[in-house]
Design goal:
hpI Integrase, Chain A; 3 domains; 24 helices; disordered N terminus; 4-stranded antiparallel beta sheet; 46% helix; 716 residues; alpha+beta; flat
C-alpha cells in the first residue's frame, strides 16, 4: 500500500476490552494506586479517582442495573464518553455542547437506561435494531410518562449523545444514521418548561436562620476557646498525636515494673484529693455508679487488662474516700461566659468529639452563609485562604470554583479554577476560619477527620462531603435546642419546616439582603456596611449565580411592596406630597401589569426591575417615587444593570420625587414625640435645643399638611 493510500484508509476503531482501565485518559487524584483502578469487565466502576473535588464522596457506576443484553454496549459508550479524545469534536459536529464531567456519568447512564429499558421491554436485542420510527414511539412514551419536564429533557438528551458517538461504537450499538427526531431540540419536542418565578431552592425561614447564625456566632466567639482547650486535653488520652487530625498512637502502653504501678496510682489519687475532684464514674447496668476503670487506665498509661486484673489497684481507688462522679469529666474548667455565667459547668470526656464537630459545623455555617459561596466551594477551601487587603482593610477569602470552570475549548477543568475575585467576608468569618484552623493541621479547611476514630471506610477526598455537612447542620440545631432545654433557655432555634441543607444558605442570604437589611441578623453579621460588597464581593461575577438570586428576591420584594401599597390605597390610605399622584398611578398600574408575570432567569428579573412602575422605595418618614432626571439625592449605582437607585438615607427634603403615606406620617409622629421631650428640657445644650426645635417644627408642618389634604383634598 502506498503512503497516500494508507493516509486515505479509515482508521481502525478502538474498542475497550474487559481488561481496559476505565479511567484510561482521565486525570487522577495524586497518590492514586493504579492497581486498584476499575476495568471495563467490572460490573461496578469506581470513578472517584478521577474526581478532584475534595468534598465529593465515593462515586461509582453500577451496570447491574442495565438490561443484560445491552450491558456491554452501555459500557463501551460510557467508556467513550470518559476517555475518547475525539469526544468534544464529535459533540460539536452533532450540535451538542460540552463534555460531561466524570461524576455526571452516573446520571448519564441512568438517563440512557430509559431508552435501554424501553428497548428491552419491547423485545429489541440490540440498539441497532431501533429505527427512526421506533425512536418516535420512545418519544411518545417519554411525553406520556409522569415525569418532570427536566427529567424528560434529560432522557431525550441521553439519546442524542448516544447517537453522536455512533461512529465510535460497534455496529450493534449504533442508532439510525439520521439524527433522532430530525435533530429537533427538547424545547421543540416537549414544549417550553413552565417554571415558577421563584428559585426552586426553598429559603430557610427567618426565625430559624436568625437564631442559627446567633448560636453559630456564640460557638465561634464565646465557646471556641474552651472547646479547643478540651480537645487538647482529650487528644493525648484518646491516643492521637497532640495537634493531629489523623489517627495513630503517640505512645505505647506502659508495662509496670517489679514495683508495679502502685506509686502512680497513689500519686493520681493524691492529685484528685488535692484538686477537690471526684473520681471519674460510669454507670452499671443496675443503675449504680463505679469508677470509670478504662479512663483511669488511660490516665495511668496502663492497659485496661492490667487495671481489670489487678484488684489491688482498684481497691486503692475504692478505699480512697473520694466520691465517684456521675460521669467522666476533663480537668478543664470552662471559663467563657454566656449571659454572665460560664456556659458549661464542666466538659465530659465523651462529649468532646461532639462539641468539636458542632464547633466545626458552626464555622462552616458562618463561612458558607456570610460569604455567599457555594457549599462545595466552602468545603474545598484550604488553610491560609483568609487574607487581609492592605488597601481596603477588608477580609478576603480565596478559593477555587468548579461551576463554569472551563478551558479555552469549553471543556470542564477537573481540578477547578482559582477565582479571580475573592469572597469578601465580615470579621465574624475571619474569626470562624481562625478557629477552624486551630481544630486540626490538615491542608483542607474542613477535613473529614477531626478525631481519630472518625476514620471509617471513606473513599472520598480529604474534605467533608455535602451529605455529612447537611447532617451536621441539623445536628447543630438539635444540640442547641437540647442545651436550651437543659438550662431553661428560651432562645431556641425554631425548627424549619424542611430539613436544613447547605444548598439553602445562599438562597436565604439573598432573601435577608433584600428583605431585612437592618434586621436582627443584619446587626449581628454586619450586613449594613457591606451592601455593595455582598453583591459584588460576596457573589463575585454573574457566573457565580448569586446575583440572579438577588434579582429574583428584589423582584419578589418589589411585587409584595406594590401589592401591599395597592391594598392600603383601596382601603382609603391618604397620600400627600409632590409625588402623590405618580405614586397612586404607579401602584395601580403596576399591580395590573405584573399580576401573574413569570420570570425564568435572573436577566429577566433585572430587566423588569427597571420598569418605572417598580421604582418606589420606602424610606424613613417618606416614600421615594423615583425618577432619575428629577432626583436631588446622591444616586447609588445599580449593581444589576445600568439603572441608578435613590439614596434614601440622603434624601433631599425639597425633592419632587417624595410622597408620604399614612405609615410614613406615623413614623414622623413617633419622631416628633421624642423631640418634644428634648425641646421641653430646659437644660438641653442651646445648640442641640435649637436644632431639635427646628426639626420638630418641620415635622409638625409635614404632619399638618398631610392631614389638611385628607380633609380638603390631596395636597399637590
Amino acid at each position: 500500500m502506498s503512503h497516500d493510500e494508507a493516509a486515505r484508509a479509515p482508521k481502525e476503531m478502538f474498542l475497550p476490552g474487559p481488561g481496559t482501565v476505565v479511567l484510561q485518559n482521565r486525570q487522577l487524584r495524586p497518590g492514586t494506586d493504579h492497581s486498584t483502578l476499575s476495568v471495563v469487565g467490572d460490573l461496578r466502576w469506581n470513578l472517584r479517582p478521577a474526581i478532584l473535588e475534595d468534598h465529593m464522596a465515593s462515586v461509582s457506576i453500577n451496570f447491574a442495573l442495565v438490561p443484560e443484553r445491552f450491558r456491554d454496549i452501555a459500557k463501551v459508550y460510557i467508556w467513550m464518553e470518559l476517555n475518547c479524545e475525539e469526544g468534544l469534536t464529535i459533540l460539536r459536529r452533532a450540535n451538542i455542547n460540552g463534555k460531561l464531567a466524570v461524576f455526571t456519568m452516573v446520571s448519564q447512564l441512568r438517563n440512557l437506561r430509559g431508552l435501554l429499558d424501553w428497548l428491552d421491554v419491547h423485545g429489541f436485542t440490540s440498539v441497532a435494531e431501533a429505527t427512526s420510527e421506533d425512536l418516535e414511539d420512545y418519544l411518545d412514551a417519554v411525553r406520556d410518562a409522569e415525569l418532570t419536564h427536566g427529567y424528560r429533557s434529560d432522557l431525550l438528551q441521553a439519546v442524542r449523545r448516544l447517537w453522536a458517538f455512533r461512529e465510535l461504537l460497534p455496529p450493534e450499538g449504533r442508532l439510525p444514521e439520521m439524527p433522532p427526531w430530525g435533530g429537533k431540540e427538547s424545547r421543540v419536542l416537549l414544549g417550553k418548561s413552565r417554571r415558577d418565578r421563584e428559585n426552586g431552592t426553598p429559603r430557610i425561614q427567618e426565625a430559624t436562620m436568625t437564631m442559627t447564625v446567633l448560636w453559630a456566632a456564640r460557638f465561634v466567639e464565646d465557646f471556641a476557646e474552651d472547646i479547643i482547650a478540651a480537645l487538647e486535653e482529650f487528644r493525648p488520652l484518646f491516643g492521637c498525636k497532640p495537634g493531629r487530625h489523623t489517627p495513630g498512637p503517640h505512645r505505647r502502653v506502659r508495662i509496670p515494673g517489679q514495683a508495679g504501678a502502685a506509686p502512680e496510682v497513689g500519686a493520681l489519687i493524691k492529685s484528685f484529693r488535692v484538686s477537690g475532684r471526684d473520681l471519674p464514674g460510669r454507670q452499671r447496668e443496675d443503675g449504680t455508679w463505679e469508677p470509670d476503670w478504662p479512663f483511669l487506665a488511660k490516665l495511668l498509661d496502663l492497659g485496661l487488662t492490667t487495671m481489670q486484673k489487678n484488684q489491688a489497684y482498684r481497691d486503692m481507688f475504692l478505699t480512697s474516700g473520694i466520691p465517684v462522679a456521675h460521669g467522666t469529666f476533663l480537668t478543664l474548667q470552662p471559663r467563657r461566659l454566656l449571659d454572665g455565667k460560664p456556659w458549661a459547668k464542666n466538659i465530659a470526656y465523651n462529649d468532646v468529639k461532639q462539641l468539636v464537630r458542632t464547633l466545626s459545623t458552626a464555622c462552616f455555617l458562618l463561612v458558607a452563609y456570610l460569604t455567599g459561596c457555594r457549599p462545595g466551594e466552602a468545603l474545598n477551601l484550604r488553610r491560609g485562604c483568609l487574607r487581609r487587603d492592605r488597601v481596603t482593610k477588608l477580609w478576603e477569602v480565596h478559593g477555587r470554583k468548579w461551576k463554569n470552570a472551563r478551558d479555552e475549548n469549553g471543556e470542564k477543568i477537573p481540578e477547578g479554577q482559582f477565582r479571580d475575585e475573592p469572597w469578601i467576608a465580615p470579621a465574624l468569618v475571619a474569626t470562624a476560619i481562625g478557629v477552624q484552623e486551630r481544630l486540626h493541621d490538615a491542608d483542607v479547611l474542613f477535613p473529614v477527620w477531626l478525631v481519630a476514630d472518625e476514620r471509617a471506610e471513606h473513599e472520598g477526598g480529604e474534605a467533608r462531603t455535602l451529605a455529612s455537612i447537611n447532617e451536621d447542620l441539623n445536628r447543630f440545631v438539635t444540640w442547641v435546642n437540647h442545651f436550651c432545654d437543659r438550662h431553661g433557655r428560651s432562645d431556641v432555634i425554631p425548627v424549619d419546616s424542611r430539613r436544613l441543607t447547605s444548598s439553602r444558605l445562599r438562597r436565604t442570604l439573598a432573601w435577608f439582603i433584600c428583605r431585612r437589611p437592618r434586621g436582627m441578623v443584619a446587626a449581628a453579621i454586619q450586613y449594613g456596611h457591606l451592601r455593595v460588597q455582598i453583591t459584588q464581593g460576596y457573589a463575585g461575577t454573574y457566573a457565580s449565580g448569586f446575583p440572579d438570586d438577588l434579582a429574583f428576591e428584589r423582584w419578589l420584594t418589589r411585587l409584595e411592596d406594590l401589592q401591599d401599597a395597592d391594598r392600603r390605597l383601596k382601603a382609603g390610605e391618604h397620600v400627600s406630597g409632590p409625588a402623590a399622584d405618580t405614586y397612586r398611578s404607579r401602584v395601580g398600574g403596576g399591580t395590573r401589569k405584573f399580576a401573574g408575570r413569570v420570570l425564568r432567569t435572573g436577566a429577566e428579573a433585572r430587566h423588569v426591575m427597571a420598569n418605572a412602575s417598580l421604582q418606589i422605595y420606602p424610606g424613613r418618614g417618606m416614600t421615594c417615587v423615583f425618577t432619575a432626571s428629577t432626583a436631588r439625592c446622591e444616586l447609588n449605582p445599580s449593581l444589576d444593570d445600568a439603572r441608578v437607585t435613590p439614596d434614601t438615607e440622603g434624601c433631599h427634603p425639597a425633592c419632587v420625587n417624595i410622597c408620604r403615606t399614612d405609615d410614613n406620617i406615623d413614623e414622623l409622629r413617633t419622631e416628633a414625640a421624642e423631640l418634644r421631650t428634648v425641646v421641653a428640657d430646659e437644660t438641653s445644650p442651646p445648640i442641640r435645643w435649637e436644632r431639635e426645635r427646628r426639626r420638630l417644627a418641620q415635622l409638625d408642618r409635614l404632619i399638618e399638611d398631610h392631614e389638611r389634604g385628607r380633609i380638603g383634598g390631596d395636597a399637590r
